[in-house]
Every structure is written in C-alpha cells, then in structure tokens.
Amino acid sequence: MEPAGSPSSEIGPEGCCGCISEEDVKCGCATGSVLVSQSIEPEHYMKVIDHKVRQKILIALSYMTMEEPVSIIDLSEELGLGYHQLNYQLKNHLIPYWITRYEKKVRGAHQIFISPPHQDVIYFLLGAKSHLHIIDPLAGRFGKLSKVGTRCDECPPKQVQACLGCIKENPCMPQSTHLIEYRKSILLANSRPIPHMPIDYFLVCTVMKNLTQEVCMINLRCKEAYTRYSNNRLKKEE
C-alpha cells in the first residue's frame, strides 16, 4: 500500500522532475508532489543543526503532514514530548519551519493544526566558499551538503537516471557554457561525486534563483523515495 500523499509510481514525460511555476501550484495544475527550496537565515539554521530534539520535531512534522496538517497535541504524542515543551520549541526556535493551517475544537478542546510551509521542502544556506548547508526534514539530513549528501543518494539507479534525464532538459537549468561551469564549480566546492544526483541540480538551481529572490520547485513522482521516507518513524529513546 502506498503511503498517504505519495505520488504515483509511474515515471513519464508528464511526471518528470522539472521546475514548475508557483502559479501552477496555486491553481492545482501540478501533479505528483512538489519539492520546494527555501533559503534559511544562519541563525535559524544554527538553532537546528546541533539540536537533536529540534531535528526530530522537524522530521516528525514532515512525515505526519504529507496528507494533511497535524495538531500540536498529536505531534507531541508522536514525539513523546510534553505539549508545553513542544509548543515552546515551535514558537521560540522553529518559527520558519511551520505555519498554522487552521484551529478547531476537538472533543471540546481547542486545537491548533500546523504543517511545514510546503508539503516537501529543502531549506538551504549558502555559506563561505560556496559551501551549501541543507536541512531536509523528510530525508532526515541536516548539515553540510558535502557531509550529509542528498536524498537521491539512496535511490535505485533506475529512478536516479529517470529523474536526471528530466532535470537536465529542464528550462530552469540553462545549458550555456557559463552556467554549466558555474554549476560544476558549486558542486565541486561541495565535494559532490560525479555523476551528479537530481537533487544536486535542484540545489544549484536554488542558489541561482535565490539571487533574484525566487524559489525552485520541481515536480516529483518518485515512489521509492516517498515510500522510504514516509515509513520513517522516530525511534523513541529508552
């Protein structure tokens, strides 16, 4: 059985990875699941990178909201954290990583339902010497790209090749000599192995678009990745 919110297992021209416009997302024209890039301020990155509890909160929030928002109460129960402890972390240290979707009464109690800003988002920070730092909650990857790698690194070769074929032909990744060299320099600076993975191209696209305050969005139909990450459940510490 496919996890809730997972994309179709089919891979074809209409379901390839590729940048899509924000208008397409808003009007519902996009199919599959949309992966969005979002730049993050250094102070917000540092609040997560060396804090295991906050990382666990982001991971749980990510997979629990693949289909619909989650209440803070349900999230606290999943994590094994007290409601007030979780609420404190959300409101004081994790502000950029979630938004309130709606509020309602459940069994007489007022509850707040939240989710990440986007269903699937990779946060990034471009540091000195073109070093990329990422927070990819759904994949459970936090840190320097050169050390933690990408979610694609564990995908089957067939899936990787299918996504690569789509991304390389995408208009968001121009094939001019100047941009190709720039892309290579960024990935070399981050010690990314050749051949590069689909998310490598995606991240370089985010860096280029970030200069103009844009985001990069790609349409994913990777059943393997979503099955793997949506089945990832936190192991409660003994």
Radius of gyration (Å): 18 Å
The backbone outline, from C-alpha atoms, is: elongated
Q: What does the largest sheet look like?
A: 5 strands, mixed
- Helix/strand class: alpha+beta
Q: What proportion of the residues form beta strands (DSSP E)?
A: 15-25%
What oligomeric state best describes the polypeptide chains here? single chain
Compute the number of strand runs: 8
End-to-end separation:
30 Å
Give the SSE string: HEHHEHHEEEEEHHHHEH
- Portion of residues in helices? 40-55%
**What's the tally of helices?**
10
Indicate the low-confidence ranges by residue numbers: 1-32, 233-238
Q: How would you state the average pLDDT, rounded?
A: 77
Lateral strand order in the biggest sheet? 7-6-5-1-8
Describe this structure in words.
There is one protein chain. The chain has 238 residues and is of the alpha+beta class. The chain has a domain at 13-41 and 118-230. The chain is built from 10 helices and 8 strands. It has helices spanning 22-27, 42-49, 52-64, 72-79, 83-93, 145-148, 157-168, 177-189, 198-210, 223-230; strands at residues 33-39, 70-71, 99-106, 109-115, 120-126, 132-136, 141-144, 217-220. The strands form 2 sheets. It has a 5-stranded mixed beta sheet. It has a 3-stranded antiparallel beta sheet with strand order 2-4-3. The longest helix is centred in the N-terminal third of the chain and has 13 residues, at 52-64. The radius of gyration is 18 Å and the shape is elongated. The model is unreliable at 1-32 and 233-238 (pLDDT under 50).
